[in-house]
């Protein structure tokens, strides 16, 4: 089942304990972000309200006792988008309450499915695939109706090898 607009928001917000993302695209070509990415690359200052709507949602989840997190998969050298995300996006998400870790797969892929698909897992049982074109443009989101066990195993592997964002970026020039 495709998840667009309000269907996506309803599917997402239905989690009771934890929302967790496997985030593996080297670049996301999101129309709403293009101007901010360009501003970052020009060396301009980050807008004060950058990503404010997401931060508000994250704070609401956390205040209601829910957990939200992700692991950002990277390969060196970081893409311009990843540098933007590391400098402008992730720190604010963490401050809002999101647990963000990084797994560098430059030398080892740990047997993970690095095939051009990201996914969210909700309460260890519901999966939503996020499908992308090679340029990072999202094609669609879809509810996965199959067995969630492989996703739980991939999450376990990722968390076993990932490091907290703050640890990964120490000494990193973004």
Key features of this structure:
174 residues; alpha/beta; seven-stranded mixed sheet; 6 helices; 7 strands
Structure characterization notes:
With 174 residues, the chain is an alpha/beta fold. The chain starts with a helix and ends in a 5-residue tail after the last helix. A seven-stranded mixed beta sheet has the order 6-5-4-1-2-3-7, with helices on both faces. The protein is globular and about 45 Å long. It is built from six helices and seven strands; from the N terminus they run αβααβαββββαβα. The mean pLDDT is 96.
Biggest sheet strand line-up: 6-5-4-1-2-3-7
Helix content: 25-40%
Q: Which whole number gives the mean pLDDT?
A: 96
Largest sheet: 7 strands, mixed
| DSSP strand tally | 7
Helix-strand pattern: HEHHEHEEEEHEH
End-to-end Cα distance, whole Å, is: 38 Å
Quaternary state reads single chain
Radius of gyration: 16 Å
Binned strand content: 15-25%
Number of helices: 6
Task: Explain briefly what this protein structure is.
The chain is an alpha/beta fold. The chain contains 6 helices and 7 strands, in the order αβααβαββββαβα. Helices cover 37% and strands 24% of the residues.
What topology emerges from the helices and strands here?
Blueprint: H1 5-13, E1 18-23, H2 34-41, H3 52-63, E2 67-74, H4 80-96, E3 99-104, E4 117-122, E5 126-132, E6 138-144, H5 149-161, E7 163-164, H6 165-169
Parallel strand pairs: 1-2, 2-3
Antiparallel strand pairs: 1-4, 3-7, 4-5, 5-6
Helix pairs in contact: 3-4
